[in-house]
UniProtKB/TrEMBL annotation:
Domain of life: Bacteria
Pfam families, sorted: Ubie_methyltran
Protein encoded by which gene: menG
Annotated S-adenosyl-L-methionine binding sites: T65, D85, D113, A114, S130
PROSITE patterns to which the protein is assigned, alphabetical: SAM_MT_UBIE, UBIE_1
InterPro entries on file: SAM-dependent_MTases_sf (IPR029063), UbiE/COQ5_MeTrFase (IPR004033), UbiE/COQ5_MeTrFase_CS (IPR023576)
Enzyme Commission numbers on file: 2.1.1.163
GO BP term, pick one: menaquinone biosynthetic process
Protein name: Demethylmenaquinone methyltransferase
Length: 241
């Protein structure tokens, strides 16, 4: 069910990738700087969780500039990878990166919305979304779609930023998210709206609540674990239909 925070996300993103179109050229740099160089490590953890079979087909939702799609194609040399995102500008940069990595034959990027996937049922061996589910207004619908297009028993992996709530580093980490990230984001992206990042992280459900939502749409073996002292949640499950 959409919340007022979802409305804030829609406002900056237009629900169709306009916000990401505007920051696309600086997105990778922003990611490296604001994650303190951790984002590649987080995506590699997600790729390792995919359990992709030989010759498997992987769907990367909210692929953006295709970092997760490329990381998967590099780790699984015989995999086919489809990346989907509404932002034409993010996809354009992603396509250049795919071409530079000589992966164009195995990695295809398409424009689309995670809430209404243009794929047949049971089409993929694994489906993931990294740092994207936060931006999707109807998360339940996106999870239902992930479950639908994955083959029965296929792997579902979700990587998402979180507000560390426990431990010694929780307080400095929250200060970093609330005060440092929006300033660096605005400065580097040229977008006053970069507060969206902090707002959307704060608005995201707790790991337990999100794991329950995953169960409610029929996913099985739902597991949630934290990375980097709670800065990131890695959810995994199997398609259950
Ligand atoms: C923070 S970026 C993450 C990009 C990439 N997955 C990564 O790991 O860097 C969020 C992406 O979500 C995309 N997005 C926004 N709304 C979406 C939707 N309804 N369906 C799919 N992707 C969406 C944006 O266009 C943007 O590229």
């Amino acid at each position: 069910m959409p919340t007022s925070d979802d409305a804030a996300i829609k406002k900056v993103d237009g629900g169709d990738g306009q916000f990401f179109d505007a920051i696309a050229r600086r997105y990778d740099l922003l990611n490296r700087i604001m994650s303190l160089g951790q984002d590649g490590y987080w995506r590699n953890k997600a790729v390792k969780s995919l359990e992709l079979p030989e010759g498997g087909h992987f769907l990367d939702l909210a692929t953006g500039t295709a970092d997760l799609a490329i990381a998967c194609a590099k780790r699984h040399r015989d995999a086919r990878v489809t990346g989907l995102d509404p932002s034409a500008e993010m996809l354009a940069i992603g396509r250049d990166k795919v071409a530079s990595a000589t992966l164009s034959e195995r990695v295809e990027l398409v424009q689309g919305d995670a809430q209404a996937l243009p794929f047949e049922d049971n089409s993929f061996d694994a489906v993931a979304i990294s740092f994207g589910i936060r931006n999707v207004p109807d998360r339940r619908k996106a999870l239902q779609e992930m479950n639908r297009v994955a083959r029965p028993g296929g792997r579902i992996v979700i990587l998402e930023l979180s507000e560390p709530r426990r431990g010694l580093l929780a307080s400095p980490a929250r200060f970093y998210i609330h005060h440092v990230v929006p300033r660096i984001g605005s400065l580097l992206s040229g977008s006053k709206e970069y507060r969206y990042l902090q707002e959307s992280i704060a608005a995201f459900p707790t790991a337990d609540a999100f794991a329950n939502l995953m169960r409610e749409v029929g996913l099985t073996n739902v597991n949630a674990r934290t990375l980097s002292f709670g800065a990131v949640n890695l959810f995994s499950a199997h398609a259950g239909h």
